[in-house]
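Exam prep: given the inputs below (a chain plus 1,6-di-O-phosphono-alpha-D-glucopyranose), describe the expected output before reading on.
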Amino acid sequence: MKYQTISTQAFSDQQPGTSGLRKKVPVFQQPHYLENFVQSVFQVADNIKGHTLVLGGDGRYYNKQAIQIILKMAAANGIARVIVGQDGLLSTPAASALIRKHRAAGGLILSASHNPGGPKADFGIKYNISNGGPAPTSFTDAVYDVSKRITEYYIVATDDIDLGTRASLKMGDMTVEIIDPVADYADLMEQLFDFKRIRQLFSNGFKMRFDAMHAITGPYASEILHNRLGADVDTVMNGIPLEDFGGGHPDPNLVHAHELVEIMNSGSQAPDFGAASDGDGDRNMIIGRNFFVTPSDSLAVMAANAHLLPGYKKGISGVARSMPTSSAVDRVADQMGINSYETPTGWKFFGNLLDAGKISICGEESFGSGSDHVREKDGLWAVLFWLDLIACKQQSAEQIVRDHWSEFGRNYYSRHDYEAIDTNIANELVQALRDQASALTGQTLGSYEVDYCDDFSYTDPVDNSISDHQGIRLIFKDGSRIIYRLSGTGTEGATLRVYIERFEADSDKHDMETQQALAELITIADQVADIKSRCGRQAPDVIT
Ligand code: G16
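Solution:
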């Protein structure tokens, strides 16, 4: 086996975004592009030599080729052992669980999450540290720095490894363990939830549909829902992972998971419960019969009820949500007398809080929720949480949410996305908002009085690191909010996200259609930021 040092030239565009480096597949296929980034990661992760790395991806186009390259680079960089999922597959939460279980130094996860896959679509790579969570900004900044001045990388010249069979192999001095990607994760879920109770629910005739969207959760859902919980064989739909996700957009929301939404909205014949997950299995959508549960409400319901489920029966220490996520969970925390932390968008910001035991449950409006069982958001975990809660309360998802609103009030909430807009226009729009922030304070806009307007800055309570410019917050005196920020996960131009929220305490007013309930704030959001004329758009591309 030949150890090679390859000369390379730096690329200037390898700055990781909200969750790793995401680019179009042809960008990653440029000679040395992937290698440069991986070498930069290995250089910054100096604890990895002689230790274990977890490796896997969501099976999208270029996953297979990338895994082989990374294995050969890992061998040349002195990594002792790589644990890799069979066929190169691992969901993001399963990878996080494996890093923790095997006390690995870190993991490389290949995914562009909910973005489409295929030869011209998206690919991505991110590094998770030894706690199982996404590397913090200090790490990713260091990787970016190295990537800008890299001149060589290390790789062994050898044949590709057959990843189709579970085995323990050698590549030079490095051990490659090819493992079942599902088993450990499914075992972990059995420890957290009452599988007996859920099995009973299914054997009583409870019907469910889970849309794996031709992405990574197909095999996980089949093992857990069919084999271990006895759900009907037609429960999992689109369960075979495909490199291009069947041409779909594996984003579990009302727009992209429309096949499931139609099934769930088909009247009294609809299944009792529906759910979906995304490309790499960390997102979730929860939907009852004719009833969509917003991710923000889902998080609040989880916080209020966790103590009913085995894994959380001792209670939860605290909760956290990303800043744009609705404040519904804060109301639960207030009542429970625990802290609710407001972090910037990005799962990496929850890591320190979880490690320090300050929180047990956290979540985001972007269809992500999770707990201290791993350090990633976890799609199937959320689905099992809801199933166990339904089994425990013997109530439908709708009834659980309605009861929650009656007790805590309802936070009407929606996100409007303007996709692929010109990056300069998007930056100017945000700058204009920043410029008028202080002048907005105290103004009356329609029937709303502005309490304050600022550019969110976060000081991590554990390591005191500061993250500035995390989104413009327009907060009204009655607690209503409009948030503007630019996505950090897109691969084409910029995506402007506008988040709109209004609180309604009166349970007689909990039945409004969401966009109607928010209509005045939506108009204000457009006027303040001048979205339509600046972006030349009449309406958002996606409303969730
Ligand atoms: C990633 C992050 C999430 C974030 C989401 C959306 O999710 O892990 O924390 O909320 O992106 O980010 P943005 O609004 O910047 O596009 P995923 O599922 O894409 O890995």
